[in-house]
Design brief:
There is one protein chain. By secondary structure, this protein is α/β, with parallel strands linked by helices. The chain folds into two domains: 369 residues, no CATH class; 127 residues, STAS domain (Transcription Regulator spoIIAA, 2-Layer Sandwich), CATH 3.30.750.24. It is 63% helix and 7% strand. It is built from 23 helices and nine strands. It has a five-stranded mixed sheet with strand order 5-6-7-8-9, with helices on both faces. Helix 20 links the parallel strand 6 and strand 7. The mean pLDDT is 88.
């Protein structure tokens, strides 16, 4: 088996040639996307329940490593909103150490998927399933932001959506006007700025306006919660507000604090508990990254290596947690911005990580003034965009009822329970409905008139049927059971099978049962028009030509001749 190669994207770039103009494009795109990534990385880290610097660490380590080793020239990787629903419960139950260990396990799973060349398997995830759980994730993220948007103080940390709504309702009368006004100003800027100056990233302007609004409101006696008030770090034994202005240190995840503040105890039981969410992280990361690569290919005319991209994503998620980075995957919005800004190669993703590094080293003290309400407003817009309400409504209007059922089921399960259950149930439901539709396409009927004419006049002792459609476990028994329904005087049954593309083990077992009944009744079966592939499968299953019981015919004319010969030879 040929293994997917590392550096697949770079191999494409070097094969196509790299010029000074391409370098300028990569530098400009990296600068643009790096500026976009800084507040998003911090906001998403906060959303999953960890300090904001862990989002920046993810960009610093995972983004350049994935760009270097992966299979897409234009993907920009880092923290994404899609993971909030999965990662927040992990943080609440296992702490920072458990979250980072789970990310490493997901990285190993992604590497395994890449080595097994499973990149194309992601294409088999139905669109209603993807749309349903992304819309559900968007709803959950939006609700999670209400707390900081209004400056609410919740009693406890609810782990379920309905509990979250109940606590928000209880805390709503005590909202803080300063936070609410700051959020409103930031949100209005986010929505209006792209229409005024689309070349300047709107979220940077929104955060700047939010900082200014917060300072004015503080001066007017209306307090506004800021990042520096919520988060701090220790330097030489002294607590400092905000995020640390230095590089992350290497640490094994199990050396970091768990939910009780004590280091985790690495054990088989801990790995067992984290394996299911790690698998969910890996599958969502694979879907998100490969969808992102497809979008980038559509914008540029390039072609990514899906297995190489899975390998790169796996390495990024395996290494980043060792330096405090949380789960990373390719982000569609940032990758699209990367393409529009003129990127040519993965160097743009590496430059974008360098921009984040410089910002963290030089501007960390200023980040302390960022209002939590402004960061929440930023994530609220991200949640709206990722939920794609126009696509959901359009699908609800035009899709078949079965697809609508899958979409709504995935959405509801994602919101009310979790994404792991939603995707599992959605895939099973979609598969079941697909099997039902396919089984309805398979039938066994008396031979149509135009084909019956090819057989000519048939004696009373001969019946002719036509089977159309795949003979698989959902349809085989129903279709082949028709072959048992005939009068006692019938001696030969002709079955036309040219419209049968495949058969599985269930069909083989059902056909063996039919042949056993025919032997007991002295009835012969002639299979006409079966493809070479079907005949090979029958031979491998031990269903072979048997005088007076089973014969094969190229076409209906030959089948007629064999049927008449059997009638003459029968007593």
């Amino acid at each position: 088996m040929r293994l997917p190669s590392l550096f697949a994207a770079w191999r494409q770039v070097l094969a196509a040639g790299y010029s000074l103009q391409a370098l300028r494009g990569d530098l400009a795109a990296g600068l643009t996307v790096g500026i976009i990534a800084i507040p998003l990385a911090m906001a998403l880290a906060i959303a999953v329940g960890v300090a904001p610097q862990h989002g920046l660490y993810t960009v610093l380590v995972a983004a350049p490593l994935i760009a270097l080793c992966g299979g897409s020239r234009f993907n920009i990787s880092g923290p994404t909103a899609a993971f909030v629903v999965i990662l927040l419960p992990i943080t609440q139950q296992f702490g920072l150490g458990g979250l980072l260990l789970c990310s490493m396990l997901a990285g190993l799973i992604l590497i395994a998927l890449g080595l097994l060349r499973a990149g194309r398997l992601i294409e088999f995830v139905p669109y209603p399933v993807t749309l349903g759980f992304t819309a559900g994730i968007g709803i959950v993220i939006a609700v999670l932001q209400i707390k900081d948007l209004l400056g609410l103080r919740l009693d406890g940390a609810p782990q379920h959506f309905l509990d979250q709504l109940a606590l928000l309702g209880q805390a709503l009368p005590d909202f803080r006007p300063g936070d609410a006004l700051t959020a409103a100003v930031s949100l209005a800027t986010l929505l209006l700025w792209p229409r005024l100056a689309p070349r300047v990233p709107g979220h940077l302007v929104a955060l700047a306006v939010g900082v200014l609004a917060a300072l004015l409101l503080e001066a007017a006696g209306l307090p506004v919660a800021t990042l520096g008030e919520r988060f701090s770090y220790s330097l030489d034994g002294v607590s400092q507000p905000g995020i640390p202005p230095f590089l992350p240190a290497f640490a094994w995840p199990w050396q970091l604090p768990g939910p009780d503040g004590q280091p985790l105890v690495l054990s088989f039981e801990l790995i067992r508990q984290l394996l299911a969410p790690a698998f969910a992280i890996a599958m969502l990361g694979a879907i998100e990254s490969l969808l992102c690569a497809v979008v980038a290919d559509g914008m540029t005319g390039s072609k990514h290596d899906p297995n190489g991209e899975l390998l790169g994503q796996g390495l990024g998620n395996l290494v980043a947690p060792l330096f405090g980075g949380i789960t990373a995957t390719a982000a569609i919005a940032r990758s699209a911005a990367n393409v529009r800004a003129g990127a040519y190669s993965p160097l743009a993703a590496i430059v974008h990580a360098g921009v984040v590094l410089l910002a963290m080293l030089l501007l960390a003290p200023l980040f302390s003034y960022l209002p939590m309400a402004s960061l929440a407003a930023l994530l609220l817009v991200v949640a709206w965009n990722m939920s794609e309400p126009h696509h959901v409504l359009h699908t609800l209007r035009i899709a078949p009822r079965s697809d609508v059922l899958v979409l709504l089921t995935c959405l509801a399960l994602t919101v009310l329970f979790d994404m792991v259950l939603a995707v599992g149930v959605g895939l099973l439901l979609a598969a079941g409905l697909f099997i039902k539709r396919m089984s309805e396409l398979t039938d066994a009927q008396p031979l149509p008139r135009q084909q019956l004419a090819l057989l000519g006049e048939l004696p009373d002792g001969v019946l002719a049927y036509s089977i159309r459609g795949p003979l698989f476990f959902g349809a085989a028994e129903k279709a082949l059971s028709v072959l048992r329904r005939f009068n006692p005087g019938v001696k030969v049954v002709v079955v036309e099978m040219s419209a049968v593309p495949l058969l599985d083990m269930t069909a083989l077992a059902a056909l063996e049962n039919v042949l056993r009944d025919y032997r007991q009744q002295g009835v012969g079966l002639v299979l006409s028009g079966a493809s070479a592939n079907l005949r090979l499968k029958l031979r491998r299953a031990g269903i072979r030509r048997e005088p007076g019981v089973l014969a094969f015919a190229r076409d209906l004319a030959q089948a007629r001749a064999k049927a008449l010969d059997w009638l003459e030879a029968s007593p």
